[in-house]
Amino acid sequence: MDRIVSWLARMAMVLVGIVCVALTTPAFADVDTAPRLSLRAAIHVHSTASTGMLSLEALAQRAEEQGLDALILSENFTLRYDYGLRPLEGLLKHTVAFPSVMEYGIERFLNEVHAVQQRHPNLIIVPGVEVAPHYYWTGSLLGRDLTMHNAQRNLLVIGLDRAEDYASLPARGNPLSFAWDKKSLANALPFLLVVPAVWLWLPRKQLAIEWHEPVRPLRRVVAVMMLVLCVGLAINAWPLASPAFSSYDAQVGYQPYQALIDAATERGALVFWSMTEARDFSQHSFGPLGMVTVKTDPHPEGLILTHGYTGFGGLYQDTRHVVAPGGIWDQVIQASVTDSRGAVPTMIGEVAFHGLEDAGKDLDRVYTVVQATEQTAPGVLEALRSGHAYAVARGDQSVLLQLDEFRVTSNGGAQSVGMSDSLDTSEGRDLMIRVGVSAVDQKPHPARLRLIRSGQVIGQIEGQTPLQYELADRDAPAGEWITYRVEVVGKSGELLTNPIYVRK
Fold first, then answer.
1. DSSP label at 465?
2. How many Å apart are CA 490 and CA 267, to the nearest integer?
């Protein structure tokens, strides 16, 4: 009996230890041993289904010519904007609409993706949309300071392949996502005017079988006026369903964006913050009413003020500080690994391709190398979700870089992990980081490589490609999760990796 009690006690201690490890190990800590393929993916591409200049067929042909393996579309979901003079914003309203998937037809878009995929079996085509969930107005036409904000504060929603999933995405320009609430009931109140209008229009009483009391003209005039008022108020309140967030409310903050993230991820989509530091500013003349300003300010704080998104665009052709050592990205990474908040956001490259008419733009100008376990759409999406990807951009000399090696080893090489995998080692030996970078054309090009540990640059080299770098990190702190990532910059191009996670 004593042996049984002792054995049960030991088993209980083992189970407690397992539970403690599970509770203190972040969600990213599983080591991935499956072999992975490096696939080049152009992310954030527009076709003629929205604001692009090339058809999806032409895009597929060009992607294959450039040796790309995947085309990840980000068609504009809805580009419908309206402004109305309050309180009659429904009647006294001006609406502007541009090509979008909502205008093109969701079913039509998905059917076209399927048809082109059938004709190009060697190219992976993933449907997706670019969504600006909310915009709002400040100022007024009379004050000559009317301004529309955040029309280009976008999220990329990738991987949904059912029309009903798109139709319900919450966005100010998508009436299919509007909800019925107390405001909807208030919008319906004008219809009650029909009752007294009909009562005034009909005779008051019947004097004989075929004779009715004469109706006074004034009563019918009043009835007509009530019906006209009913119709006018109904038009002003239409649609009776209401958007979750008003376009005249500047105080909603990031609530519309979190609502979209939640709705899209619930349906299985990947959601990426798009080009958070790109500026958008334009002014449009309305004659005697003056200028209307349309602007979207940089919003990198969105990476901190929202949660549950898959990742963000960290490499694109515009100003970027988020990915600088110690910047917002490193802060988000450290917060995630320290507080065990779940998956760390994946950094991707965004080409933002609309057509060849844009100077310096092409499908392979910026792309993401996805390290997938299989060459399929699900394989690409899984790799993006788990962070097995790095971003590449052409430099002034139009050179493309490639990552040949990025690993962290410990215990004399007995333990080894690659990008986006994690290493939890109980040994106290030095950690060894190995990085190899070369040019796609295999020629020498100038480049500078920096190794970044938890937001701090701990080593760098400059030279000609191919670059080989090794560092024994003897100063790595013990007992906490740390991250390593690589940045390569120069005239020859740019390369950014997602992190490797280590706890010593």
1. S
2. 40
d(CA 368, CA 38): 10
Q: pLDDT by residue (tens digit) across 147-196?
A: 999 999 999 999 999 999 999 899 988 877 666 566 655 565 666 666 77
Helix segments in 25-75, DSSP class H: 56-65
77 and 103 Cβ atoms separated by less than 8 Å? no
Asked if the model's pLDDT at residue 421 lies above 50, the reply is yes
Q: Supply the DSSP string of 366-377, one letter for each residue.
A: EEEEEEESSSSH
User: For residues 354 and 502, what is the distance between their CA atoms, to the nearest angstrom?
Assistant: 40
d(CA 498, CA 348) in angstroms, rounded, equals: 9
pLDDT tens per residue across span 487-501 = 999 877 899 999 999
Residue 263: strand, helix, or coil = helix
What three-state secondary structure class fits 101?
helix
pTM for the model stands at: 0.84
The answer to whether the CB of 272 falls within 8 A of the CB of 155 is yes
Tokens in use for 426? 């109980």
Length of the chain: 504
